[in-house]
Amino acid sequence: MPSQTHLDTLLPSVSPSEHSQSQPCLNTHIGQLPLDSYIFNASGPLCTSEEELIRLAGSASAAVMTKSCTILPREGNAEPRYQALPLGSIQSMGLPNLGYQAYLEMLPRLKKAGNKPIVVSVSGFSVADNVTMVKAFQSSCADLIEVNFSCPNIEGKPQLGYDFEQTEQALEAICQLGDKPIGLKLPPYFDFSHFITMADIIKKFPVSFITCINSVGNTLVIDAETETAIIKPKGGFGGLCGDYIKPIGLANVRAFRQLLPDNIDIIGVGGIKTGTDAFEYLLAGASAVQVATCFEKEGVECFDRIAQELQSLMAAKQYSSIAAVKGKLKVI
Ligand code: RRO
């Protein structure tokens, strides 16, 4: 077998994704569901309309993830509700979506367009809403159902994931509705007692995966010149996203990986825009990562770029697979 260096001189110049034989493999899985890559879109930007979802189906995203849906269609909050920031963004979109029935009806077309896993996100305003939607998607061609327990942007609706009693009641209701794997999108936690309480609740139910983290809710960015908050909804309070929140996302993935059994996968999200960011989440224990702010800024090209960067980094470190790195964070 020739050495890698020798091989490189023999092979034509190809991009990392084409150079598959010698590149690390990014195949992974969420529960029993195999994914061809470790990177896909987060429920959030550019995944609300059929056109946007079809674009994702044709991209290098490992899956097509939908915007969180509600029972009825919603326009969302008043504008301005999204502002890019130097290191990320602040937003209070307010769950704009087409209503769950539109996504139900669209799913077969998305499947046909991409022939790849579809993850639906549901975000009901009550347990009854979530039961209705989860039940409906249990009989659809969706592969995974992510239930959003952490939207920070609806006035008068606290984030479910911060109320442990209600979280348990909701899980009791939604986990017994069918065989499709259920996951939870969690808010960021900041105290070990909260990581432990939440992990203990999750362990009581057949939860297949958790997604950590949603945006850091109810932050405030002020423009000193105009002396106003920079977004309108909720008097300016909104979810912080992007680079600012990566250390919080990494900590949540790491803490839950240490507290949950291996059969509950963790999807990392928060500030992933390079292969190195994706690698850090892998060390922390993520089985896959989702990209939101960077996808919003760069478009679908980000998925292949980040995958190639991750492959190059893993190759340089002589890691051949996702499994070889997952959760292998060293302590000093
Ligand atoms: O639509 C939103 O305002 C929104 C949702 Br559903 C969510 O889960 N997280 C977020 O930061 N924004």
Automatic annotation (TrEMBL):
Pfam families: DHO_dh
Reactions that this protein is recorded to catalyse: (S)-dihydroorotate + fumarate = orotate + succinate
Dihydroorotate dehydrogenase catalytic domain segment(s): 26-314
Cofactors that this protein relies on: FMN
Sequence segments annotated as region (Disordered): 1-23
GO MF entries: dihydroorotate dehydrogenase (fumarate) activity
PROSITE patterns: DHODEHASE_2 (PS00912)
PANTHER family cross-referenced by the UniProt entry: DIHYDROOROTATE DEHYDROGENASE (FUMARATE), DIHYDROOROTATE DEHYDROGENASE (QUINONE), MITOCHONDRIAL-RELATED
Enzyme Commission number: 1.3.98.1
CDD domains: DHOD_1A_like
Transmembrane segments: none
Protein name, entry field: dihydroorotate oxidase (fumarate)
Species of the source: Shewanella eurypsychrophilus
InterPro entries reported in the protein's UniProt record: Aldolase_TIM, DHO_dehydrogenase, DHOD_1A, Dihydro_DH_chainA_dom2, Dihydroorotate_DH_1_2, Dihydroorotate_DH_cat, Dihydroorotate_DH_CS
Subunit: Homodimer.
Stated family: Belongs to the dihydroorotate dehydrogenase family. Type 1 subfamily.
Alphabetic keyword roster: Cytoplasm, Flavoprotein, FMN, Oxidoreductase, Pyrimidine biosynthesis
